[in-house]
Write a structure and sequence with these properties.
247 residues, alpha/beta, Aminopeptidase, seven-stranded mixed sheet, 5 helices, acyltransferase, transferase
Protein backbone atom coordinates (compact mmCIF):
# COMPACT_ATOMS: atom_id res chain seq x y z
CA UNK A 1 0.00 0.00 0.00
CA UNK A 2 1.29 3.39 -0.86
CA UNK A 3 1.45 5.84 2.04
CA UNK A 4 0.40 9.20 0.70
CA UNK A 5 1.77 11.38 3.49
CA UNK A 6 1.43 14.83 1.96
CA UNK A 7 0.95 17.11 4.96
CA UNK A 8 0.04 14.22 7.24
CA UNK A 9 -0.82 15.32 10.78
CA UNK A 10 2.19 14.28 12.88
CA UNK A 11 1.63 11.97 15.84
CA UNK A 12 2.82 14.24 18.61
CA UNK A 13 1.12 15.22 21.85
CA UNK A 14 -0.22 18.77 21.63
CA UNK A 15 1.71 21.33 23.66
CA UNK A 16 0.07 24.12 25.67
CA UNK A 17 -1.96 26.51 23.50
CA UNK A 18 0.20 28.64 21.25
CA UNK A 19 0.08 32.44 21.45
CA UNK A 20 -2.32 34.17 19.11
CA UNK A 21 -0.84 34.33 15.61
CA UNK A 22 0.86 37.56 14.67
CA UNK A 23 -1.01 39.82 12.30
CA UNK A 24 -0.23 39.32 8.64
CA UNK A 25 -1.73 42.67 7.66
CA UNK A 26 0.43 44.90 5.45
CA UNK A 27 2.74 47.37 7.13
CA UNK A 28 0.88 50.53 7.97
CA UNK A 29 2.22 54.05 7.70
CA UNK A 30 3.64 53.96 11.22
CA UNK A 31 5.70 50.82 10.62
CA UNK A 32 9.07 50.82 8.93
CA UNK A 33 9.94 48.23 6.31
CA UNK A 34 13.56 47.26 5.85
CA UNK A 35 14.27 45.90 2.35
CA UNK A 36 16.61 42.91 2.24
CA UNK A 37 18.04 40.76 -0.49
CA UNK A 38 17.65 36.98 -0.34
CA UNK A 39 19.42 34.07 -1.96
CA UNK A 40 18.52 30.38 -1.94
CA UNK A 41 21.48 28.14 -2.71
CA UNK A 42 22.64 24.57 -2.23
CA UNK A 43 24.26 23.92 1.13
CA UNK A 44 27.96 23.09 1.25
CA UNK A 45 30.02 21.09 3.78
CA UNK A 46 31.19 24.34 5.41
CA UNK A 47 27.54 25.09 6.28
CA UNK A 48 27.29 22.12 8.68
CA UNK A 49 27.86 24.13 11.91
CA UNK A 50 25.01 26.49 11.02
CA UNK A 51 22.80 23.63 9.78
CA UNK A 52 23.28 21.89 13.11
CA UNK A 53 22.26 25.04 15.00
CA UNK A 54 19.21 25.50 12.76
CA UNK A 55 18.06 21.94 13.42
CA UNK A 56 18.46 22.50 17.17
CA UNK A 57 16.40 25.68 17.02
CA UNK A 58 13.74 23.78 15.09
CA UNK A 59 13.68 21.08 17.78
CA UNK A 60 13.12 23.80 20.39
CA UNK A 61 10.26 25.32 18.39
CA UNK A 62 8.59 21.92 17.92
CA UNK A 63 9.07 20.94 21.62
CA UNK A 64 11.10 17.92 20.49
CA UNK A 65 14.52 18.57 22.03
CA UNK A 66 14.26 15.21 23.81
CA UNK A 67 14.65 13.62 20.35
CA UNK A 68 17.56 15.79 19.26
CA UNK A 69 20.83 13.81 19.28
CA UNK A 70 22.44 14.96 16.02
CA UNK A 71 25.98 16.34 16.13
CA UNK A 72 28.02 18.19 13.55
CA UNK A 73 30.03 15.01 13.08
CA UNK A 74 26.95 12.84 12.51
CA UNK A 75 25.59 15.33 9.97
CA UNK A 76 28.91 15.51 8.15
CA UNK A 77 29.08 11.71 7.97
CA UNK A 78 25.87 11.55 5.90
CA UNK A 79 25.40 14.85 4.10
CA UNK A 80 27.14 15.74 0.82
CA UNK A 81 28.06 12.12 0.04
CA UNK A 82 25.88 11.97 -3.09
CA UNK A 83 25.08 14.50 -5.82
CA UNK A 84 22.30 16.97 -4.90
CA UNK A 85 18.73 15.80 -5.55
CA UNK A 86 19.81 12.15 -5.63
CA UNK A 87 19.94 11.90 -1.84
CA UNK A 88 19.56 14.27 1.11
CA UNK A 89 19.70 17.83 -0.22
CA UNK A 90 19.63 21.13 1.66
CA UNK A 91 18.67 24.57 0.44
CA UNK A 92 20.11 27.44 2.49
CA UNK A 93 18.27 30.77 2.58
CA UNK A 94 20.52 33.77 3.10
CA UNK A 95 19.57 37.39 3.75
CA UNK A 96 21.69 40.49 3.23
CA UNK A 97 21.28 44.25 3.43
CA UNK A 98 23.39 44.49 0.27
CA UNK A 99 22.61 43.04 -3.17
CA UNK A 100 24.17 39.68 -3.98
CA UNK A 101 26.55 39.51 -6.90
CA UNK A 102 24.65 37.44 -9.43
CA UNK A 103 26.99 35.37 -11.52
CA UNK A 104 26.32 32.50 -13.86
CA UNK A 105 28.05 29.75 -11.94
CA UNK A 106 29.50 26.78 -13.75
CA UNK A 107 31.34 23.61 -12.98
CA UNK A 108 34.89 24.61 -13.88
CA UNK A 109 36.01 21.00 -13.92
CA UNK A 110 33.32 19.64 -16.23
CA UNK A 111 32.64 22.96 -17.98
CA UNK A 112 28.93 22.45 -17.41
CA UNK A 113 26.16 24.39 -15.64
CA UNK A 114 25.62 23.70 -11.92
CA UNK A 115 22.92 21.36 -10.66
CA UNK A 116 21.18 24.33 -9.08
CA UNK A 117 21.50 27.99 -9.95
CA UNK A 118 20.91 30.15 -6.83
CA UNK A 119 17.61 32.02 -6.70
CA UNK A 120 17.54 35.72 -5.82
CA UNK A 121 14.62 37.76 -4.52
CA UNK A 122 13.90 40.74 -2.29
CA UNK A 123 11.76 40.97 0.84
CA UNK A 124 10.77 43.48 3.48
CA UNK A 125 11.53 42.88 7.16
CA UNK A 126 10.13 44.73 10.15
CA UNK A 127 13.65 45.14 11.56
CA UNK A 128 17.13 45.66 10.11
CA UNK A 129 19.42 42.66 9.82
CA UNK A 130 21.94 44.48 12.02
CA UNK A 131 19.56 44.00 14.98
CA UNK A 132 19.64 40.21 14.65
CA UNK A 133 20.98 39.08 18.06
CA UNK A 134 22.43 35.92 16.50
CA UNK A 135 24.03 37.59 13.52
CA UNK A 136 27.50 36.30 14.39
CA UNK A 137 26.27 32.76 15.06
CA UNK A 138 24.52 32.52 11.70
CA UNK A 139 26.87 34.57 9.56
CA UNK A 140 27.30 32.73 6.27
CA UNK A 141 30.82 31.38 5.94
CA UNK A 142 30.39 31.00 2.18
CA UNK A 143 29.43 34.61 1.47
CA UNK A 144 30.33 38.18 2.39
CA UNK A 145 30.35 39.75 5.82
CA UNK A 146 26.83 41.13 5.39
CA UNK A 147 25.19 37.77 4.67
CA UNK A 148 23.23 35.89 7.37
CA UNK A 149 21.56 32.48 7.18
CA UNK A 150 17.84 32.86 7.84
CA UNK A 151 16.52 29.34 7.25
CA UNK A 152 16.81 26.04 5.39
CA UNK A 153 14.90 23.24 3.71
CA UNK A 154 16.09 19.63 3.89
CA UNK A 155 14.55 17.16 1.46
CA UNK A 156 15.27 13.93 -0.40
CA UNK A 157 13.78 11.89 -3.26
CA UNK A 158 10.99 9.39 -2.87
CA UNK A 159 8.79 7.53 -5.34
CA UNK A 160 5.06 7.12 -5.98
CA UNK A 161 4.13 3.81 -7.62
CA UNK A 162 0.58 5.15 -8.07
CA UNK A 163 1.86 8.03 -10.18
CA UNK A 164 4.81 6.11 -11.56
CA UNK A 165 6.96 9.15 -10.85
CA UNK A 166 9.61 10.25 -8.36
CA UNK A 167 8.98 13.06 -5.91
CA UNK A 168 10.56 14.95 -3.02
CA UNK A 169 9.90 14.49 0.66
CA UNK A 170 10.59 17.63 2.70
CA UNK A 171 11.89 16.54 6.09
CA UNK A 172 12.62 20.03 7.43
CA UNK A 173 11.42 23.50 6.49
CA UNK A 174 12.55 26.10 9.00
CA UNK A 175 12.98 29.85 9.22
CA UNK A 176 14.60 31.44 12.23
CA UNK A 177 12.18 33.28 14.50
CA UNK A 178 13.69 36.65 13.69
CA UNK A 179 12.78 36.27 10.02
CA UNK A 180 9.35 34.64 10.16
CA UNK A 181 6.13 36.08 8.75
CA UNK A 182 8.02 37.78 5.93
CA UNK A 183 7.48 35.24 3.15
CA UNK A 184 10.86 33.52 3.50
CA UNK A 185 9.42 30.10 4.30
CA UNK A 186 7.27 30.33 1.21
CA UNK A 187 10.36 31.16 -0.86
CA UNK A 188 12.08 28.00 0.38
CA UNK A 189 9.12 25.72 -0.24
CA UNK A 190 8.52 27.15 -3.71
CA UNK A 191 12.19 26.57 -4.54
CA UNK A 192 11.83 22.89 -3.66
CA UNK A 193 8.59 22.51 -5.61
CA UNK A 194 9.95 24.29 -8.69
CA UNK A 195 12.96 21.97 -8.73
CA UNK A 196 10.66 18.96 -8.45
CA UNK A 197 8.61 20.18 -11.42
CA UNK A 198 11.77 20.80 -13.45
CA UNK A 199 12.93 17.23 -12.75
CA UNK A 200 9.62 15.71 -13.86
CA UNK A 201 8.52 14.69 -10.37
CA UNK A 202 4.89 13.97 -9.56
CA UNK A 203 4.57 15.67 -6.17
CA UNK A 204 6.20 17.04 -3.04
CA UNK A 205 5.21 15.80 0.41
CA UNK A 206 5.87 16.74 4.04
CA UNK A 207 4.25 16.52 7.48
CA UNK A 208 3.04 19.20 9.86
CA UNK A 209 2.45 19.06 13.60
CA UNK A 210 -1.27 19.02 14.35
CA UNK A 211 -1.02 21.95 16.80
CA UNK A 212 0.79 24.22 14.34
CA UNK A 213 -2.36 25.88 13.01
CA UNK A 214 -0.44 28.75 11.41
CA UNK A 215 1.63 26.33 9.33
CA UNK A 216 -1.43 24.27 8.36
CA UNK A 217 -3.23 27.40 7.16
CA UNK A 218 -0.13 28.53 5.28
CA UNK A 219 0.23 25.17 3.49
CA UNK A 220 -3.45 25.02 2.59
CA UNK A 221 -3.26 28.54 1.13
CA UNK A 222 -0.42 27.29 -1.07
CA UNK A 223 -2.70 24.58 -2.43
CA UNK A 224 -1.45 21.62 -0.37
CA UNK A 225 -3.99 18.98 0.71
CA UNK A 226 -4.12 17.71 4.30
CA UNK A 227 -4.30 13.91 4.24
CA UNK A 228 -6.57 12.94 7.14
CA UNK A 229 -6.88 9.27 6.15
CA UNK A 230 -3.33 8.29 7.09
CA UNK A 231 -1.28 8.08 10.28
CA UNK A 232 2.46 8.68 10.52
CA UNK A 233 4.33 5.52 11.64
CA UNK A 234 7.85 5.37 13.05
CA UNK A 235 10.04 2.51 14.23
CA UNK A 236 12.95 3.76 16.34
CA UNK A 237 14.89 3.29 19.58
CA UNK A 238 14.88 -0.14 21.26
CA UNK A 239 12.04 -1.41 19.09
CA UNK A 240 14.10 -0.61 16.02
CA UNK A 241 17.37 -2.05 17.36
CA UNK A 242 15.63 -5.28 18.40
CA UNK A 243 15.40 -6.29 14.75
CA UNK A 244 19.18 -6.51 14.49
CA UNK A 245 19.03 -9.96 16.09
CA UNK A 246 15.88 -11.13 14.30
CA UNK A 247 16.22 -14.02 11.86
Amino acid sequence: MEYFLSLLTAAAAPPPPSPAPASTAPHNSTQMAFPVFTRIRLAQPTDVPQIHKLIHQMAIFERLTHLFTATEASLSSVLFKSPPFQSVTIFILEVSSQPFIIEEEEDLINNSPPLYQPKFQTANLDHPIAEDPEIETFKSLNSGDNVVIGGFALFFPNYSPFLGKPGFYVENLFVRERYRRNGLGKMLLIAVVKKAVEMGCGRVEWVVLDWNVNAIKFYEEMGAQIQHDYRFCRLTGDAFQAYASTN
